[in-house]
Amino acid sequence: MKKFYATSMLLLTIGLVHAQKAPIAKTKMHWGTGSKQDTTYGCAQSLLVDNVLYISGVPGHGPDMATQLQNAYRGIEAMLKAHGATFAHVVKETLFTTDIAAVERHNAVRKAFYKGDFPAASWVQITRLLMPQAMVEIEVIAHLPKK
What we know:
By secondary structure, the chain is α+β, with helices and mostly antiparallel strands. Helix content is 35%, strand content 26%. It has 4 helices and 6 strands, in the order αβββαβααββ. Strand 2 and strand 3 form a beta hairpin.
């Protein structure tokens, strides 16, 4: 039994090492830079692996939370559209905010984009975001239909 276990573990380890060496096919997109990724901060705004789309945090902009939510979700909508997707493809959302109570008050803005088909979601209040004027930043994961 010990020999069988040791052999199984060795084969599993060899398989994992081999799997880690195989490159992952990634399609990156970064708006307005002429590049597939931003080298200043070290990120891509979206990354597609197989049929899973990862959209980096989209910060809000504008004078108040309702406007910032509207603008952030419009930015996400544009990225989804660029990949042939909609909010119906979003399976996970993470929302970071400096004012969780304001997000709660303006949740109707968010809900309108999902049209009743809501993803798994987390809302987190933080001290500040990278863009100091932003009150909200939202990232999503979407599953696209397999081609």
